Amino acid sequence: MLFRSWGWESVSCEVPADGAYQVRIRALNADAAPAPCTALLETRPAATADDRKRVRAERLLMETKLEGRVAATAESAMAKGEQAAALWREIGDAYWEASARSEIAGAALTGGKNDRAQQAAAEALASKRRLGDRIGEALALNRLSPAHVDRKS
Predict the structure, then answer these.
(1) Is 149 left (phi over 0), alpha (psi -120 to 50) or beta?
(2) What is the pTM for the complete model shown?
(3) Whole-number Å distance between alpha carbons of 98 and 108
(4) What are phi and psi of 36, to 5 degrees?
(5) Beta carbons of 71 and 110 less than 8 angstroms apart
(6) Which residues, 6+ apart, have CB-to-CB distance to 34 below 8 Å?
(7) Which among 41, 77, 106, 127 could disulfide-bond with 98, CB atoms 3.0 to 4.6 Å apart, if both were Cys?
(8) Quick one: DSSP state of residue 2?
(9) Do the strands 2-4 and 38-39 form a parallel or antiparallel pair, or are they unpaired?
């Protein structure tokens, strides 16, 4: 897990048990200014079924984030976000399930589905409040407000 100024980012993978591995944390943009972060690394002797679900959910959530920025792929992003949320729910991770709901709201806004955006953002907001995640709460409110304003106009 990696903590950045806007919250946790989970990065999981399953690798063969033999061999040496190196973990690098860097910005995608080579010109990016340095930013503080905290990394939490966990290892297990073998991946469980829930670990494999987590890896799948993380991949789907990343695809939701990327596809949710473009109107032409917003529908696909929402579907992937729903799959990710279901996997997070199956493994009992309310933090990431709520994060998926927030990303679904963002994709819905991009795709002009304001009712869907409002529903997903409200679900994310309620969960983030229950969890005491103030950063996640702010992000959910950021998604909820345009959906609400557009719906009223």
Answers:
(1) alpha
(2) 0.81
(3) 15
(4) -70, 145
(5) yes
(6) none
(7) 127
(8) E
(9) antiparallel
